[in-house]
Amino acid sequence: MDKRMLTIMVILVTIFIGFGMIIPVLPNMIEDAQAATYHLGLMLSLYSAMSFFLSPLWGAFSDRIGRRPIIMIGVFGFSLSFFLFGISDQNLWVMYASRLLGGAFSGAATACCIAYVADITSEDNRTKGMGLAGMSIGLGFIFGPAFGGLLSVFGNELPFFAASALSLGTLIFAWFVLKESHQPKEHGQPEVRESRWKAFAGPLKHLYILSFLVSFTLAGLESTLQFFQVAKIGASAFEMGMMFAISGVAGAVIQGYVVRKKIKKGMESKAILIGLLVSGTGFILILFSVNFWTAALYVTIFGIGNALIRPCVTSLVTQKTTVGQGVASGLISSMDSLGRILGPLIGSLLFYFDITYPFLFGGAVLFMAISLVYSYRAADRKFVLSKVS
């Protein structure tokens, strides 16, 4: 394996272990502050709003000065945001400030890591590279929530301090090991600013919309799942951490083996279709949870489908984009963030009316999103024929 790929995988794993650590305890921290449950949805939405507006700027900036410095800035920002939440001492406004800070820097870390992978892989190996990146993120979500659940036994603040320390360790690792993947523009060369929406054109616009819908439904699930399972089966923070860990193991296997070894160039859209069907089915099955094991199984089914979709969409976009990889990756991250802005708001609203509504709605959206894959296929064939003629 390319040493650069191994390095970026280590960085992604550690970033998302830190991110995953806070998942099981974030709802508890909000409840400890005696705040209403809708604040979880608002915090998640504001975090993603910051990422949405800033991700394409980070991506375009990395096209001009290189990926390495932007990735390190993002990791440092993550560390600060986790530490700030840890010292919030049940102050709701400090919690909000922490999430805004984390969102501001998330695009610098994640979008530029994806652009880095696109830089160091050929079109033929792009899907494998994105699969490895997805597997790394999945590994972070295996260990992160599990560690967070274990650490929560000693206090809800501890996972945030641990995540902050891990991010600092990642920064030090990147400083000494991470090599630049993109040749920055020479001094004096005129800058060409490319709008994120320049990438939103042709057949790829269907994939960008699909990326939004996948993130929208995932964010709706993340903002309501713990509250649903507490009401349904009395789940604890530790049990939620274990559920995410089990789902993460399955997702890592899918992205590390199935996507990397079995899905060749040209097979991505078929894999996306299968992923949408599996993910939508898992969404509906969550409603039938009766204990920890059934809940973990149904969340895992959802996670398996999601693990198929994401790297394949990213691979297709980075293969076929006509703009810079940083801009394309920044737009993917922005669509992801836009879904994460609206998903928690809609999910929390639906949960207010009935705890089953977010899951029925999410499943229906994923099933309807299948039409976007067929629209992309038709538009891509038409685009290819027009270039030949």
The quaternary organization reads as single chain
Mean pLDDT: 83
Q: Which percent range describes the beta-strand content?
A: under 5%
Number of helices: 14
Number of E-state strands: 0
**What structural category characterises the helix and strand content?**
mainly alpha
Shape summary: globular
Order of helices and strands: HHHHHHHHHHHHHH
Q: Ends: how far apart?
A: 40 Å
Task: Explain this structure.
The protein is an all-alpha fold and 389 residues long. It is built from 14 helices and no strands. It has helices at 3-21, 26-32, 38-65, 67-86, 92-120, 126-151, 158-177, 204-233, 237-262, 268-285, 292-320, 325-353, 357-368, 370-388. The protein is globular and about 65 Å long. 58% of the residues are buried. Residues 187-191 have low confidence and may be disordered.
